[in-house]
Amino acid sequence: MVATGYVALILSFLGVVASEMTVNTSNAMEGRRLQDHHCAYSDDCSKKGGRCCNSDLTCYRKNAGWAGCRWNCVPNTHYEHDHGDHRTPWACEKVGGQQHQQCAHHDDCSKKGGRCCNSALKCYRKHAHWASCRANCIPNTHYEHDVGKHRTPWSCEEVPVAGGGGGPTPSPTPSGDSREPQGPWLHGMKGTHFWDCEAGDCDSSLLRPFIKRKAVMPPTNAPTDPAEHGGSQYGEKLWMTGAMSDSLSRFMGPNLLGYDDQYAGNCGGCGQCVLVSNPDSAHPDWTVVVMKKVRCHPANPKCSGDQKTIDFAVPSFDHLQYSLANRCGKGDSDYTFLTREQSGTCGGVHKPSHCDCTKIPDTTPELKMMRRGCELFKQWDWHHGQPMNLKYKKVECPRGMVDRFSGPGGFGGQGVIGFVEAMSQSPALVPLGGVVWRIPLPIVGLGGLASLSAVLFLALRRNRGRMEPQLLDGECSS
């Protein structure tokens, strides 16, 4: 009985310590997020000569009275950080000197051989009698610099530079959509797939308080069709989530959407998106927006060092023989929707299109979401399950995609949204840090109690992410 009392006292004490650690770390992360947010999104960079506090950002004009630093900008669309009365379309003109603006908007560049005074601009045709230098152009839309009777739609045909080959320069748009964001495609990213029912680092950081059994991967992490949620932003065919390597996470930028990564190496990137194309597929022209939800730990050879890798989250596509974090069907978790076997039905299939997604039942809304995601991923039709040369570029996450994660089947402070758990465990068996504590009694001596204290402390300090049971805070690989 004395030993039992000591154990209860230790558990209670360490619970308080863990709460203090969580609150303090969360406050620090929130302060850093607010600082990054203010620097990037809340200053009018046109008043600073177009300079941004982060050299990876560019100063884009929203309207005549405001410009902000952003990763990229798609004209005539909203920005995820604008709210209320400020949620209006952006012009997306890069802020520059007045000379460039005059050159860009008031000269007919078709009479100058398609040349622009600013190399960042291209000569686009409005109609047969006028063309102008612009950063980009969306066919059949108006241009903010056109006023009065001149406010008519543009054809957006690119005027070829004289002596440059005689025809319009083909636009690098793998998606076949003119809304594709600016910036070059980067090459050499690796890909694979998983579904281990583990909520992962970014989603887990939303739990208040953190309870391991509630950290279950939500059905909305499965692939979905943008057309079913208001439409695509860049012409993308799919919205997906994934685990990203540390190198790719640093490239993505700071955490957004209230996420932090204190248990995932502090590399950033949670809630950020990348646009991906797979040349080694039946649809090399398709683009897919992928949001980081999980850290792909450098202990995974595919995610070590400077490799940029995405482990795409797809129901039924876990590699059970290699997965170190599969929690599907385990009794110490809330309902995971899939059994272990169902989570890995297609993990070993060489060609993803050969997967039998009907192995996922369709008896609940959550399971229907997951089966649908499996089928959509099949349609992308990778030639094999581990592409080595994905093309990618950083983009802002579409608003409809972000909103979906906070709706039914998404994830919030109490776990999967819409899932109600009937508490059947007795208080003595409530999981602590994901472990169901069944402590053999009696425990003899202070030495045993000290050992137990050490074990409990390490359990509280253990990381929550995939493939990282041993790393502590602040260990983003370099």
Topology of helices and strands:
Elements: H1 2-41, E1 58-63, E2 66-70, E3 93-94, H2 98-106, E4 122-127, E5 130-134, E6 157-158, E7 186-194, H3 200-204, E8 238-244, H4 246-252, E9 273-277, E10 288-295, E11 309-313, H5 340-343, H6 365-380, E12 390-395, H7 399-404, E13 411-412, E14 415-416, H8 445-461
Parallel strand pairs: 7-11, 8-10
Antiparallel strand pairs: 1-2, 1-3, 4-5, 4-6, 7-12, 8-11, 9-10, 9-12, 13-14
Helix pairs in contact: 1-8
Explain what this protein looks like in three dimensions.
By secondary structure, this protein is α+β, with helices and mostly antiparallel strands. Among the domains are: 96-158, no CATH class; 186-416, Barwin-like endoglucanases. Helices cover 22% and strands 15% of the residues. The chain contains 8 helices and 14 strands. The protein has helices spanning 2-41, 98-106, 200-204, 246-252, 340-343, 365-380, 399-404, 445-461, and strands spanning 58-63, 66-70, 93-94, 122-127, 130-134, 157-158, 186-194, 238-244, 273-277, 288-295, 309-313, 390-395, 411-412, 415-416. Strands 7-11-8-10-9-12 form a 6-stranded mixed barrel. A 3-stranded antiparallel beta sheet has the order 2-1-3. Helix 1 (2-41) packs parallel to helix 8 (445-461). Residues 6-39, 97-102, 164-178 and 419-474 have low confidence and may be disordered.
